[in-house]
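Case study B.
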Amino acid sequence: MVDLRPTSDVTQELRAAGLRPTRQRLALARLLFDHGNRHETAESLYDRSQEAGIKVSLATIYNTLHQFTAAGLLRQVVVNSTRSYFDTNVEDHHHFYFEDTGEIADIPNDRINSIAPTDLPADMELSRVDIIVRLRGTR
Amino acid sequence: MVDLRPTSDVTQELRAAGLRPTRQRLALARLLFDHGNRHETAESLYDRSQEAGIKVSLATIYNTLHQFTAAGLLRQVVVNSTRSYFDTNVEDHHHFYFEDTGEIADIPNDRINSIAPTDLPADMELSRVDIIVRLRGTR
DNA sequence: ATAGCTGCAAATGCTTTGCAAGGCC
DNA sequence: GGCCTTGCAAAGCATTTGCAGCTAT
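Model:
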């Protein structure tokens, strides 16, 4: 499951999303999309950008994560009320949440057998179905 | 779906959980459990307790919500990274989340057809499966 | 040139904590 | 009386915002 998009496409994707391809955004986009599926928090992305020698402020990390999410390049995963996670996999899928470590992993789609397209309340349309399988280590 | 527990049982349940039945805890327990299933935030419970003329501080509301959760009287629902919701229904069930209003509702159990008992990663045991059906109003 | 970004620091909002005073057993 | 609870205010954290300076086009 490797990301096949050539690096230069990032520029185009940003433009298409109405976002100027600035140095920071390009650098962050590469950190996010050039290494397979990732589940990042603002903090973890900030740390990785520091290690990579990219000059970005934490405020810009937050802005960028939200802009990318609005543009459909990222998806926000809510598993924990103290931290926001952003998933580089925007396909329809679900998550394991490791309570002990706070880590997240995609659930291979074929492992979820069938979810009912349930009847919804009147005048409501489906935004998304999130399934979180919470796991803990065997003590 | 009415709560059939006599009010006086609350005292026993608190004792059983190792919690002293103090005035605040008894009053909050009644607000929570005497009126059917509820989805409360710390703030909403605080507001309701003020209206009911109960003297409690917000800090105690937070403490109490967590103690009740640890005791299995409440269940925490994570739908939104900015607020914690507590559900008085601790049975196995799932939720609708109304994105427009921030409200939560239980999904009647028969509306979810079948969730696979998927293979789990090695050395991990299931803590819980959370399903959140996010809805928004038809514009 | 100029509209859009970025960075910093301050502000925000929810939640937790420290500690003195109060209440249950 | 002794230990658990409570309340208040202060602290903590993740996140957002205001604004001056910078940058892509």
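The beta strands of chain A are 39-40, 75-77, 85-87, 94-98, 103-107, 124-137. The remaining cases will be described in the next quarterly update.
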